[in-house]
Amino acid sequence: MRNFTKLVALAIGMIGYSATSFAQTDVKTDQASASATIITPITIAKVNDMSFGNIVSTATGGTVILSTASGRTESGVQLGAVAGTVTAASYTVTGQSGYAYTVTLPADGYEITTGAAGPTETMTLTNFNSSSTGNLTAASFTLSVGATLNVVANQAAGDYTNATPFDVSVNYN
């Protein structure tokens, strides 16, 4: 009889656990949907190359700073009486209005050279700067890039250029 009582108690206990587990099957469900927005890719296209114009070398050398507004400031050299072509590099940037972007400019030390008057002569560009960074306020805008041209003492006359253009990049943040 004692075994029978234990068996009945065990059966009642198992039924109790079974009832508890059945109570947990009342699962609630909700739903979510997925979405995505494709934005306009950011692009950059060159409009104008950078040109420092006509410069007269001196015995001391110096610099010419070309602003993003295509203005020049000289130090230690002279600007030519005839300016020549003076332009900051400019680009058209397009993208999604309201999005933040960054501009990556060349490192200091970009070289332009000439070999027209004999041996190759070199000048370097430093302190590249741009007219804009931040948020796109329109779908398209003009980005201008200026720099400092370093002219050595008695720089040889000639047309200075580089066969490999410098890179300016834009990217969404």
Describe this entry's structure for a reader:
This protein is mainly beta. The protein has one domain. Helices cover 13% and strands 39% of the residues. It has one helix and 14 strands. The strands form four sheets. Strands 1, 4, 5, 8, 10, 11 and 13 form a seven-stranded antiparallel β-sheet that branches. A hairpin with a 6-residue loop joins strand 10 and strand 11. The protein is rod-shaped. The N and C termini lie far apart (81 Å). The model has no long low-confidence stretch (mean pLDDT 89).
Topology:
Elements (H helix, E strand, L loop, with lengths): L1 H22 L19 E6 L2 E2 L2 E2 L5 E5 L5 E4 L2 E2 L6 E2 L1 E6 L5 E5 L5 E5 L6 E10 L3 E2 L4 E12 L17 E4 L1
Antiparallel strand pairs: 1-8, 2-7, 3-6, 4-5, 4-13, 8-13, 9-12, 9-14, 10-11, 11-13
Short description:
The protein is built from one helix and 14 strands.
Q: Give a short account of the largest sheet.
A: 7 strands, antiparallel
Strand content: 35-45%
Low-confidence stretches: none
Radius of gyration, in Å, reads 36 Å
- Which secondary-structure class do the elements indicate? mainly beta
| Total individual domains | 1
Order of helices and strands: HEEEEEEEEEEEEEE
**What general outline do the C-alpha atoms trace?**
rod-shaped
Distance between the termini: 81 Å
Percent helix among the residues?
A: 10-25%
How many beta-strand segments? 14
Mean pLDDT: 89
Q: How many separate helices?
A: 1
